[in-house]
């Protein structure tokens, strides 16, 4: 795919797209979708966000974007106090909350903090047993973040469901086995393992707000929370984090 550099300013973004050859020379329709950038925090030292960085983080973790999927949205946000880039891929050309997507969250050191891959193809499939999921989760994590994996203790392992809508608008349920762990630093990490030991989702360095009885860290992988954050949906119940800015 062409190298597309995503910048905060709209003018910079358009210039980058043109330089990368995304727009046709005759001024016709683009060969790839324009990628919208949102969610700029005023206290963040802004810098360019690159799809290439997200894809390198995926490669380092042995993950990949499905064939034919494209980046449709990127945002500059925070994971607690850490500036992060959030890059979302979909099979279509525009962002559709609640639909199929692959989303990546990386910090400024290119640490993979979050990943989810929810596809219709993965729906209604069997999930691994607890011992198989735990083994697969730690083998995967040690492959690219061994130091982090060494600090984790397993809290529990259980079924986890995520609901999406496919491109025909039909409700689909993606089921996996969630391995929830706590790091020695007090923060939480979990990995959701699907059929054939594929990684469906991963989050690390997640803070629990004990006083509020819900998650404290932002939820950039979760569409219901994003809708609430953007004012297009209701605040989800606990344990979802509060979505207000």
From TrEMBL:
It comes from the Bacteria. Keywords: Signal. Residues 1-24 form the signal peptide. This is PASTA domain-containing protein. It comes from Planobispora rosea.
């Amino acid at each position: 795919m062409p190298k597309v550099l995503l910048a905060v300013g709209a003018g910079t973004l358009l210039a980058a797209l043109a330089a990368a050859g995304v727009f046709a020379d005759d001024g016709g329709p683009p060969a790839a979708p324009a990628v919208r950038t949102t969610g700029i925090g005023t206290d963040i030292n802004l810098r360019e966000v690159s799809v290439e960085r997200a894809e390198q983080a995926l490669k380092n973790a042995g993950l990949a974007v499905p064939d034919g999927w494209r980046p449709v949205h990127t945002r500059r946000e925070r994971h607690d106090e850490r500036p992060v880039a959030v890059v979302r891929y979909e099979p279509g050309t525009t962002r559709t909350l609640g639909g199929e997507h692959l989303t990546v969250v990386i910090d400024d050191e290119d640490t993979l903090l979050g990943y989810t891959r929810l596809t219709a193809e993965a729906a209604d499939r069997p999930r691994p047993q607890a011992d198989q999921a735990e083994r697969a989760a730690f083998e995967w994590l040690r492959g690219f973040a061994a130091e982090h994996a060494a600090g984790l203790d397993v809290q529990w392992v259980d079924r986890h469901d995520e609901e999406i809508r496919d491109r025909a608008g039909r409700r689909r349920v993606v089921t996996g086995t969630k391995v929830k762990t706590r790091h020695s630093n007090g923060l939480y990490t979990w990995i959701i393992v699907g059929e054939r030991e594929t990684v469906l989702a991963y989050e690390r360095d997640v803070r629990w707000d004990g006083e509020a009885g819900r998650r404290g860290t932002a939820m950039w992988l979760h569409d219901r929370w994003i809708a609430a954050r953007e004012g297009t949906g209701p605040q989800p119940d606990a344990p979802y984090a509060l979505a207000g800015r």
